[in-house]
Amino acid sequence: MSQKHFALITGASAGLGLAFANQLAAQKHNLILVARRSQRLHDIAQGLQAKHGIEAVYIVADLADTNAPDLIYKQCQENDWPVSMLINNAGYGVPGDFDQVDWATHQAQLNVMLNGLVKLTYLFYPAMKKAGRGGILQVASLAGLAPPTAGHTLYGPMKSFVIKFAHSLHLEGKDFGVHVTAVCPGFTYTEFHDVNGTRNRMNKLSKSLWMSADEVVEQALHALAQNKAIKINGWRNQLIALMTRLLPDKLIRALFHSNIQKYRKRSHD
Ligand SMILES: NC(=O)c1ccc[n+]([C@@H]2O[C@H](COP(=O)([O-])OP(=O)(O)OC[C@H]3O[C@@H](n4cnc5c(N)ncnc54)[C@H](OP(=O)(O)O)[C@@H]3O)[C@@H](O)[C@H]2O)c1
Predict the structure, then answer these.
(1) What is the DSSP letter of 102?
(2) Is domain 6-261 classified as CATH 3.40.50.970?
């Protein structure tokens, strides 16, 4: 059995996932990078190995495929890559009107952001529990705490699920030395808004609302090390989350809805 341990990061080819890879490599963690774009993963793994003297491997997988988590787990077992940290980060937004988005697109998003996240956790958690140590970071979003908005119809509800799921497992894991944290970033500079075609709209938002991927990741890893159940990134996002708890439901829902509508991308746009 290898004594080496690995941090497995989904969505490691860009944005927050890449920032996790950079920071964990600098802390001398060995890495398993997961995403669909193989050339990017190859280049990132090579670069991190050369720069930090760690072992960085990658698995090309599409988490929209419901078999992907089992295949990833199998590959880790076969190669003797024990995973002591799991970062479920892969995700994206689907703008538009719920009924105008084809079912395959909804299904793929559900597979990546719910099925993939839960199944990978289910597969990798038991060994951490048995070892009496480990960390699982579930990348959620402020959207999972904020009131619902029209558009991106499944995104907020899925992130709410991720937060509650993380919190339940956090409570189970703490008796066994396994840290579980949900991280809730607000607007963060990554490829997220380029991928879903909302970058021009989002550029109209105040710059003060945005954070860098590096800042979010540094806070997330710190929260995981401290075994916080939830980390909301940045004081502005913490204030928004607090307002959603303190203000009357009707008021905060109306405030959110009217503000978000200005930036909403409709299916016919
Ligand atoms: N950016 C924000 O403002 C923000 C705010 C709150 C929460 N988040 C959350 O942060 C997480 C990371 O997003 P990001 O902002 O870093 O976006 P990003 O820069 O677009 O990166 C998304 C990552 O997910 C991977 N991915 C997407 N679909 C996949 C699939 N089917 N199978 C495997 N990997 C897939 C992408 O890799 P490939 O394309 O190579 O597969 C990429 O590495 C997401 O869960 C997102 O919901 C982002």
Answers:
(1) -
(2) no
